[in-house]
Amino acid sequence: MSLTRSRSSRWPALAVLSTALLAPLSAQAALFGDDEARRAILQVREQRAKDNEAQQARMEELTRQVDALKRSLLDMHTQIEQLRLDLARQRGQEEVLQRELSEVQRRQTDLQGTIDERVRKLEPQTVTLDGQTIQVEPDEKRGFDEAIARMRASDFAAAAVALNNLLKRYPNTGYRHSAQYWLGNAHYGLRDYTAAIQAFRLVVDGAPEHPRAPEALLSVANCQAELKDAAGARRTLEQLVKQYPRSEAAQAARDRLLTMAPPAKTAARKPAAPAKTR
User: Fold this and answer.
1) Rounded to an integer, what distance in angstroms lies between the CA atom of residue 47 and that of residue 34?
2) What is the pLDDT of residues 1-29, one digit of tens each?
3) Separation between Cα atoms, residue 209 and residue 232, nearest integer Å
4) Is the dihedral of CA 111, 112, 116, 117 positive or negative?
5) How far is residue 143 CA from its own chain's centroid?
6) Residue 163's closest CA among 153, 36, 151?
7) What is the span of the domain harbouring residue 195?
8) 89, 123, 157 - which closes a domain
9) What's the rounded Cα separation, in Å, for the pair 43 and 48?
């Protein structure tokens, strides 16, 4: 009993002693826990502050990069616009140059055409006239063409002057026989039949193979008829039929000979009586 009582009386004392011993340790443990928590909180705050600063720096860096990118884009846009303006200006200049080039080419073509025309006017030309091919100077051709134009206009006086001038200036012209033929027609139109016969005869005598020769002989007969030279006209028509039997002019001569009166027979002359001697 005493032992049990003594043990039971010790337990409270031990409990009080334990409590007394553990109380400082608990307070120290509680104090240590608060410090760790504070340090942890401070560390978290510091880390958060660092993170915020890093994030702020990153944001500022990103902002600077975005601003630089914007400036670059703005500069690029400005350059693109400048390039567009330059390109438009170049296109405009190219269009101007193209128009100028086209104008120069047109002028060059016109100039070349003018030069070629002048050269053609100076160079001999090949002309086919009355079935014959001849080489003539440009002035010869011009003079002959003007004379024929006068003939077609029935301006026989001007045609005769033009043809005479042509024959005087170019006595050996390839137009010579054709010009003489038309000169005879011009004189015929002026009723100068004698001059017309002379011109037509130059064709027949100077170029009997000329395509206009049969017509020239027929025209001679016409002039002789106008001059009331029936016998001469008959002889000319007969010459035409004999010399150019297959020509159209010869057929016209045959028809005309049929309508002409036969030539009058001339009486034979009596020999003259001898003179009386004294």
Assistant:
1) 19
2) 554 555 555 555 555 555 665 566 565 55
3) 22
4) negative
5) 33
6) 151
7) 125-259
8) 123
9) 8
Q: Which DSSP letter does residue 192 get?
A: -
* Residues 6+ away with beta carbon under 8 Å from 227: 193, 194
* E runs forming strands in the chain: 125-129, 132-136
pLDDT of residue 76: 82
Q: Are 244 and 210 in contact (CB under 8 A)?
A: no
Task: Pick left, alpha or beta for residue 80 (phi over 0 → left; psi -120 to 50 → alpha; otherwise beta).
Answer: alpha
Q: What pLDDT is stored for residue 272 in this prediction?
A: 38
The predicted pLDDT at position 40 comes to 82
Nearest-Å Rg of the Cα atoms of the chain is 68
Q: Where are the alpha helices (DSSP H) in 123-207?
A: 138-152, 156-169, 176-189, 193-206
Residues 6+ apart with CB under 8 A from 144: 136, 163, 166, 175, 178, 179
CB 170 within 8 A of CB 144: no
Answer yes or no: do 40 and 61 share one domain. yes
Asked if 218 and 240 touch (Cβ cutoff 8 Å), the reply is yes
In angstroms, rounded to a whole number, what is the distance separating the alpha carbons of residues 237 and 257? 7
Check residue 63 and give its pLDDT. Answer: 84
pLDDT tens-digit readout, 98-121: 888 888 888 878 877 776 666 566
Tokens encoding 75: 């500069």
What pTM was estimated for this model as a whole? 0.55
Q: Report the domain count for the chain.
A: 2
d(CA 200, CA 222): 11
Which residue, 63, 91, 123, sits at the end of a domain? 123
Burial of 109 (0-12, 13-18, 19+ CB in 10 A): exposed
The parts of the chain modelled with pLDDT lower than 50 are 3, 266-278
Q: Token pair for residue 145?
A: 């063409």
- Residues 114 and 150 occupy one common structural domain: no
Cα four-point dihedral sign 147, 131, 178, 176: positive
